[in-house]
Amino acid sequence: MYNRKKYDTRSDEGKTPEQALARLTELCSRSEKCEDDARRLMTRWKIEASAQDEIVSLLLKERYIDEERYTRAFVEDKLRFSGWGAYKIKAALRAKHIDAASIDAALDEFSDGDESHDRLMAILSEKLRHTVAEDNYRLKGKLLRFASSRGFGYEEAMRVIDELVE
């Protein structure tokens, strides 16, 4: 069986700052990365903090990393393809140290009340087909927990659940 660690020339440990910069520019060229992603990778590669700062500032200056662009791409991806709600998206971006203003701007850009309602309706309709409960009360509870785990708010979830169950 192929052992990635043994044969991969892009090992995760022991990179020089020059190798880290080259690898990060390659990664950032292929997909959006934020500063936190880059720092996490460099920490794993055992790059010193001062070198990390220099590399990150160069990546920001050359626009390989752009927090606004990353935030918009992340929000669009999670809304459209992953079916996440606003609360889960905000929490994930806060964990990556993205500022609240950028998060709110990106969510406002891609969030539409009707679209969010339709997306939640589709997600909960699918969940409803596979959910077994003794009564409507327990069924609504299961659907509500599922909707909240996907990052949707209580009021929005209950409106959709009431439409589906009634």
Describe this structure in words.
With 166 residues, this protein is mainly α. Helices cover 73% and strands 0% of the residues. It has 10 helices and no strands. The protein has helices at residues 4-7, 17-30, 35-44, 49-61, 67-82, 86-95, 100-110, 113-129, 136-149, 154-165.
How do the helices and strands line up, and which of them pair or pack?
Layout: H1 4-7, H2 17-30, H3 35-44, H4 49-61, H5 67-82, H6 86-95, H7 100-110, H8 113-129, H9 136-149, H10 154-165
Helix pairs in contact: 2-4, 3-4, 5-7, 6-7, 8-9, 8-10, 9-10
Using the CA coordinates, give the radius of gyration: 21 Å
- Spatial gap, N to C terminus: 54 Å
Q: Number of helix segments?
A: 10
As a percent range, the share of helical residues equals over 70%
**Structural class estimated from helices and strands:** mainly alpha
Mean pLDDT score: 90
Number of separate strands: 0
Q: What's the helix-strand series?
A: HHHHHHHHHH
% residues in beta strands: under 5%
**C-alpha geometry:** elongated
Which stretches are poorly predicted, pLDDT < 50 over at least 5 residues?
4-9
How is the quaternary structure best described?
A: single chain
Largest sheet: none
Short note summarizing the structure:
The chain has 166 residues and is mainly α. It has ten helices and no strands.
